[in-house]
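Trying the structure run again after the queue cleared.
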Amino acid sequence: MKGGTLLLLTLFFATFCLQFNKALSDETKAVIAGDIVTDDDEYYYEDDDDGDASAHDYVDDEEDDADDYDDEALETAVEEKPAELRVEPPYFEETELQIYTQPEQNVMIDCVAKNVHSNNVIMWYKGKVVIATGQFTMYPNVDVLKNNSLVIKNVTVKDAGDYYCEVLPEKVRMHALLEVDESLMIFCDGKEVTNDTLVLVQGEPHRCECKYYSLENVQIKWFIDGKRAESVVERVLGEQLYLDNVDTKHGGIYQCLADDLSQEPPHAMIVVEVVYAPKVSTYRHYVNTAQGSNAELYCDYTANPSGQAQWLRNRKSLNASQKYTLDEVAHKGRTRSILTVMDVRSKDLGEYTCRVQNTIGSDEVNVRIIYEPEHPQLEDFEVSGSKAVIHWLVRSIQPLSEAVLDYKLAGSYTWSKVSVVHTHRHADTHIWKVTHEMELTPGSWHVRMRAKNTVGWSAFSAQHDFVIKDNESDNGDDDDDDDD
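Done. Tokens:
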């Protein structure tokens, strides 16, 4: 209304100026006519063909001048009209928008109208339904900002569609098409991670959820490296997958699938990488050598991120020198750190520590250099009826002089001992093969073995178990079956 009032005032002012100028012009003509007396009037005549003078066109130069003056005054009044009174209609520089978003996001649709005045009203529509008038909204998830932009909070697939910003009363409008992704999405700990690589720390708990933003009601299934997730993780509850205590086994490709019974159901994936402290082990906790010989110690480890191995003696780090060499090689998917002690003397005997550390933590294992035989290792055993044949391997540079086998029935407190006579060296190596045969009664048996070289006895091997079956009982069962 304010703009219309200004327009009427402007027109009134222009009309007043025109009338004032015309009155001034008439008065000027009257003064001129009074001062100048002439026999000739301002009329002119042209003769007819008959010679009669007849009046044709009456020309008044003063009136023409007045009309010209009036036109100039009008143009001047229009030109002198204040700029704020010349109102331009509202318009949009961009009338078509297309917006693509993910579910659960907040979306802002701009309404950038030009020449919006105080008498204009902004309306927002979704389709044909009014959702906002000015900053008054009809729905709780919708807001209108002071610059007339529309904000839709926590978008769902139901919010997709056509939106219009309209300027009244001119009914100028802008159209925005909102599209919401309907595919599956994976969230872990509340963050959207679809198609991402997720780095998890060993020991931490995590929860992942597969969300299918569709109006369809389908079953969600989880897979890890192609296997059902239930066989790898502790808990899978519908859309949610729980990693209560992350471990290295949890690394891999995770997929969730919306089982809509189609040949190509919707699916989403993430890659899980587990970072963990080093895991260090060794197959040889005892390393046999002889005085003046070299001793090779090793430890195997895995770590993510990669770790750094360090060998220590009496808590002091060992560096490469004439006495020690250090090396690392890949071995069966792990890293093997090798320490070689040159020209071993009695003072070099004892415990060495392999320690591996990364940014997550550290781990270590101890290895001893000895002159005695190393731990015996079970190579194989054969059971035939009541007879058991057991094969052991013992590493010793020095010749073996004796070996003792301990055995006992399960549940017994004392070990029985038997000396082993059959020993021989493997080719030209320092590995000895020890074999023992024995007759045993039916039952579950435990065995262990140790060996002696020219320096002394080894430690006992690990305990191993085997079973001697009761053949008479089995035969008795067969006889009963025959009687039937």
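Residues 294 and 342 are 5 Å apart (CA to CA). Worth checking whether this holds up in the mutant runs.
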